[in-house]
C-alpha cells in the first residue's frame, strides 16, 4: 500500500506561481512513475506531468515550458513547480503513483487562479 498526501494548493493571481508537493509513504518500489493530474469541474481528468524514478519527465502541451516536475527519491516526494499560471489552470490537482500494475492516488489539492 502507498499513501500520497498533496500540499501547496491555494489561490493565486494570474501570472503567479505555486509549488505543489506530494509525499509518498508505504511500500514504495524503486522503479516507479509519479505524476500530477488535474480535473476541473465538468472536465475530464487529464495528465499534467509525470516523472520516472530515473528522472525522465513528460508534460502536457498546455503546461510545457511553464510547469516543472521533479522528485526527491530519498524523501519519496514529487513536486510540481507551476509558473506563469493562467485561469485555465484552475483545477483540483491529484498526485499519482504507479509501479507495475498498482496505481495509487492522493486526495487532491485545489489550485485556483484568478484573472
Question: Brief description of this entry?
Answer:
With 115 residues, the protein is mainly β.
Question: Would you give an account of this structure?
Answer:
With 115 residues, this protein is mostly beta strands. The strands form two sheets. Strands 2, 4, 5, 6, 9, 10 and 11 form a seven-stranded mixed β-sheet that branches. Strand 9 and strand 10 form a beta hairpin. The chain is globular, with a radius of gyration of 13 Å. The mean pLDDT is 96.
N-to-C CA distance: 40 Å
State the total count of DSSP E strands: 11
- Average pLDDT figure: 96
The profile of the biggest β sheet is: 7 strands, mixed
Which residues form runs of ≥5 with pLDDT under 50? none
Task: Determine the fraction of residues in helical runs and give it as a percent range.
Answer: under 10%
Order of helices and strands: EEEEEEEEEEE
Alpha carbon gyration radius: 13 Å
Tell me the number of helical segments per DSSP (H or I, 4 or more residues long): 0
Query: What characteristic shape results from the CA principal axes?
Result: globular
